[in-house]
Specification:
Helix content: 40-55%
CATH topology of the largest domain: Spore Coat Polysaccharide Biosynthesis Protein SpsA, Chain A
Number of domains: 2
Radius of gyration: 26 Å
Shape: elongated
Distance between the termini: 42 Å
Largest sheet: 7 strands, mixed
Oligomer: single chain
Structural class: alpha/beta
CATH architecture of the largest domain: Alpha-Beta Complex
Strand content: 5-15%
Number of strands: 9
CATH superfamily of the largest domain: Spore Coat Polysaccharide Biosynthesis Protein SpsA, Chain A
Order of helices and strands: EEEHEHEHEHEHEHHEHHHH
Strand order of the largest sheet: 5-4-3-6-8-7-9
């Protein structure tokens, strides 16, 4: 793909008044592939990353764009991105106002991208851009909606990274029902419709396969290369583990009860309410039939608390049900996804 000697980066106004990249190639057509890379303090690795991406993508014969998102870096990443857009027509630089986190940066990249196929990877050069054609081939030949990379030979510290990752992968697979070896691998390929209506927050980028599975996506996995970190240091700390666990509970709830919250809150409420009423009736029987003094018994307090908790849980379920209906109806968001519609008269007519 020939490089323009004076590439133009076209900008469109965003709702916040910022200028957002639009049709960065200046070709007047939508690219076939968008590569989204969140960046945070990657000034040292950025030139090498862009070079490797261009070397990997230009020979495959597809039009593409590189959507690089600076997540409020404190070094010179943003300035370097601005400079590179003047020389590289495929580059789209998305500069966030501050550090929002990897999930928000990835969501910003999805929103700024234009291609029907999207690939994501980390900006620290541990993911190998040469694996992108492999993921695209698997995505299209196997008719999948999402293909996740599997770093089967990870070049990370065994105690601080590999062991926690192994445990997390097994836990996530058990909770979500999506059996992947490596949830934490950022190298993934998507069809645009999979991520088009996903609202990401927290650490949910890690759970994109599970969220896509909830929407009925077909998911695959391929082995990819993994390299030792050459520049900078890891941004992951122990606090990330707790955030991931909280988001895992969110994904579990969405998978099981997204469109029927009353089933969990209502059931728990009725169970608790029933237990409280049963204890209260038992104590009432003792009082009326046996003349037992029940005023000072802890069981009476337990009955009262169980009844109140049951009423509250049932109320939570009702409110959640109303909120869920408001969420779907106000946005016109369906509670199902249709892969294809085949009408008999059209099939017969075409024959």
């Amino acid at each position: 793909m020939a490089e323009s000697t004076s590439p133009t980066v076209h900008l469109a106004a965003s709702p916040s008044g910022e200028k957002a990249p639009c049709d960065p190639n200046g070709w007047g057509s939508t690219p076939e592939l968008s590569v989204v890379v969140p960046l945070y303090n990657e000034e040292a690795s950025l030139p090498h990353l862009v070079e490797k991406l261009l070397n990997a993508l230009r020979p495959i014969g597809r039009s593409f764009e590189l959507v690089l998102v600076d997540d409020g870096s404190r070094d010179g990443t943003a300035a370097l991105l601005r400079e590179q857009t003047t020389r590289i027509p495929e580059l789209v630089a998305v500069l966030l106002r501050r550090n929002y986190g990897q999930t928000a940066a990835m969501a910003a990249g999805f929103d700024a991208s234009q291609g029907p196929l999207i690939v994501t990877l980390d900006g620290d050069l541990q993911n190998d851009p040469e694996d992108i054609p492999l993921l695209l081939s698997q995505l299209e030949q196997s008719n999948l909606d999402l293909v996740s990379g599997w770093r089967h030979q990870r070049q990370d510290n065994r105690l601080s990274r590999l062991l926690p990752s192994l445990l997390a992968n097994r836990l996530i697979a058990g909770v979500t029902g999506v059996r992947l070896h490596d949830y934490g691998c950022s190298l993934k390929a998507y069809r645009r419709e999979v991520v088009a209506d996903m609202n990401l927050y927290g650490e949910l980028h890690r759970f994109l396969p599970a969220l896509a599975f909830i929407e009925g996506a077909r998911i695959g996995e391929v082995k990819v290369n993994h390299h030792p970190r050459r520049y900078g240091r890891s941004k992951y700390g122990i606090d990330r583990t707790f955030r991931v666990l909280m988001d895992l509970l969110t994904v579990w709830f969405m998978k099981r009860f997204l469109t029927r919250p009353m089933h969990v809150f209502g059931f728990a409420g009725l169970l608790t309410l029933g237990a409280g009423l049963g204890i209260a009736l038992w104590l009432m029987g003792e009082k009326l039939l046996l003349g037992t003094d029940i005023g000072a018994r802890p069981l009476l307090l337990m009955a009262v608390l169980a009844i109140l908790s049951g009423v509250q849980l049932f109320g939570f379920g009702l409110l959640a049900e109303l909120q869920m209906r408001t969420y779907h109806e106000s946005q016109g968001r369906p509670i199902y996804r249709v892969r294809a519609t085949v009408r008999g008269r059209e099939t017969l007519g075409s024959g």
